[in-house]
């Protein structure tokens, strides 16, 4: 008799587990559908918001940045298609705006490459484009536009060098050593010596020569010898320093 009871108990336990598993799956499905419904409602609200604030989104850079931040968690990208709801809602599509800005950024990068080796501060790009446009280009729009250029190849990307955001427009690979030298140049107002590299970074001559050889060959740094000492000038960082001085 005790053996039979255990058998019945095991059977009931197995059935209970299946029932619990089925109920858990139902609850998961209900929960997922509820979440999807909530997201869809939020998307509708976002569309209504876009209609009500169309002018601000188009004309106010800070407002536009906040709007994009609102879109991201919902998986909404107003920049994806010119024929999307967002393009129609916002008149001249946001995608069009960033595409045109990306083209302008690329033009400036190509035009200045012989002077800076294909690396230029975001703030310098902003200053050049704002000078040539009726409306000021917002700094926060530039990384978004540069991101669009990545798909075209050519090495377009944003790098953080010290306290400066830089646009790199050449496929040259820059490792952490190159970034350290750029950061050192930034703190040295755009100019450093081999002694600066050895003293402040603790490198031997071979390591310093390897880094500087690439930067010099790409035109990202210039060498100026004075009394047997090599002074390395970084035009992109020096330009950034000059702008900071003029604004202070």
Report on this model:
Belongs to the SNF8 family. Pfam families: EAP30 (PF04157). InterPro entries: ESCRT-2_cplx_Snf8, Snf8/Vps36, WH-like_DNA-bd_sf, WH_DNA-bd_sf. The protein is mostly helical and 248 residues long. Among the domains are: 2-75; 172-248, Arc Repressor Mutant, subunit A, CATH 1.10.10.10. Helix content is 65%, strand content 10%. The protein has helices at residues 2-52, 54-59, 61-71, 85-89, 94-116, 122-132, 141-149, 176-187, 194-201, 205-217, 235-247; strands spanning 119-121, 157-161, 164-168, 191-193, 222-226, 229-233. The strands form 2 sheets. A 3-stranded antiparallel β-sheet has the order 1-3-2. Strands 4-6-5 form a 3-stranded antiparallel β-sheet. A hairpin with a 2-residue loop joins β5 and β6. α5 (94-116) crosses α7 (141-149).
Keywords:
three-stranded antiparallel β-sheet, WH-like_DNA-bd_sf, 11 helices, Vacuolar-sorting protein SNF8, ESCRT-2_cplx_Snf8, 65% helix, 248 residues, Arc Repressor Mutant, subunit A, Snf8/Vps36
């Amino acid at each position: 008799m005790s053996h039979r009871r255990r058998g019945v108990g095991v059977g009931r336990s197995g059935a209970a587990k299946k029932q619990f598993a089925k109920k858990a799956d139902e609850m998961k499905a209900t929960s997922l559908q509820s979440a999807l419904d909530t997201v869809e409602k939020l998307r509708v609200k976002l569309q209504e918001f876009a209609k009500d604030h169309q002018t601000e989104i188009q004309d106010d850079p800070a407002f536009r940045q906040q709007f994009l931040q609102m879109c991201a968690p919902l998986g909404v990208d107003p920049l994806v298609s010119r024929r999307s709801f967002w393009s129609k809602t916002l008149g001249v599509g946001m995608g069009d705006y960033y595409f045109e800005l990306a083209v302008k950024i690329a033009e400036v990068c190509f035009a200045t490459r012989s002077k800076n080796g294909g690396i230029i501060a975001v703030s310098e790009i902003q200053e050049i484009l704002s000078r040539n446009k009726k409306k000021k280009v917002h700094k926060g729009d530039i990384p978004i536009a540069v991101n669009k250029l990545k798909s075209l190849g050519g090495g377009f990307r944003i790098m953080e060098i010290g306290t400066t955001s830089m646009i790199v427009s050449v496929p040259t690979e820059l490792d952490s050593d190159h970034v350290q030298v750029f950061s050192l140049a930034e703190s040295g107002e755009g100019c450093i010596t081999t002694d600066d590299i050895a003293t402040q970074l603790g490198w031997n001559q071979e390591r310093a020569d390897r880094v500087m050889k690439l930067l010099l060959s790409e035109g990202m740094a210039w060498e100026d010898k004075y009394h047997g000492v090599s002074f390395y000038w970084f035009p992109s960082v020096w330009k950034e320093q000059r702008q900071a001085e003029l604004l202070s």
